[in-house]
Batch of 2 targets.
Target 1
Amino acid sequence: MTATAPVAVVIGAGDATGGAIARRFAREGFTLCVTRRNADSLSELVTRIEADGGKAHAFGCDARNEDEMVGLFEHIEREIGPVEVAVFNIGANVRFGITETTARVYRKVWEMAGFAGFLTGREAAKVMLPRGKGTIIFTGATASLRGGSGFSAFAGAKFALRALAQSMARELGPQGIHVAHPIIDGAIDTAFIRDNFPERYALKDRDGILNPEHIADQYWAIHTQPRDSWTHELDLRPWMETF
């Protein structure tokens, strides 16, 4: 791997899906730039990627902050390498009844899942367009398609992210940039699901919850599609999930 290896940026490289995506692209020879609000929480992921022979850089970054996002992409392009893939994977799933949803909660969720996605997509597009190639992936959810009881803030933000992805795909596709919006429709194998929804987690043995590694495989497949057969939106769900 050299300093000129293509770079994949994962905004929101958590312990499950985001980390799995980062590891998947690292196995394909990409240099990974992974972010969370606290860079220290990325040490285990970086160590694992490096132990597997890959290369990764951790950044503490608030994706809602315009200056930080502008600086992040400028630093990566200047010091690490050309960004070929950008994945926006920040979760903002909260549940409150409408009368208990404060203005602060609604605004914060929109900032995390909507506005931060805009900043990520804009900065990725800026560096990809001069090269005429690249992939930008926004992680969607069930709430991207339909609002549920208690999810007014989350659904509003995920609807906004989906609209952003559609607009960017129509604008950037003719210029060589593949914009995709995978919808994760189901519980994911995470510590949160294990600890808070044990009945749902028990379905793991029946392939009833999503494996982050398998999600990551689909993200890699999206990136490697020929441009005469680009996917914009696909949904991933366990076989037993209703829809």
Target 2
Amino acid sequence: MFSIIQAAGWPIWPLIACSIVALAIVIERFISLKTAKVAPPRLLDEVLSVTKSTVPGPDVVAQLEKNSALGQVLASGLRAVNANPHCTEDDLRATMEGSGRLVAQRLEQYLSALGTIASAAPMLGLFGTVVGMIEIFGSQAPGSTGGGNPAQLAHGISIALYNTAFGLVVAIPALIFWRYFRGRVDAYLLTLELSSEHLVRHLKALRK
């Protein structure tokens, strides 16, 4: 592996840095976007059960907020009702939407960086290719000290090809994971939105 890096020349180092950052983001997102941390399947049913007859107190709401991202959104609605039992349905929705936007920002964290790496890696590989081609033509220029040197010609070609290949090796997995995480976040956001709407209707019926 080290011999390949040596053969690819200095243009490969930015690609190596991009690959390390992309790997770190993928690992972090896999940990942060676990279902148990974002939207536990039975959490909404448990909240509806607890609020069947009355809105729970601040201690229960605080525990719910710490449970998950969905818990944070649902807790914001319960807290709004505790603070003002006569708050309107629009105010309740606005409060939960504000909390949802904060959660959405946290779920989408680092995804733009991963997408940027997926877009930039082929360009960095192309840059390395151009550097290799410049070295090839420079070595073959009339009057150059290495003119006609096969070893120098082979070195320039290796720089060009290795950088092109490594750029694609970094970009393709980064793009795949970006699309995967993007779809996962969108699914979570839909779950949060539907759960919030369900709780709003439930609280409205409870206060009648």
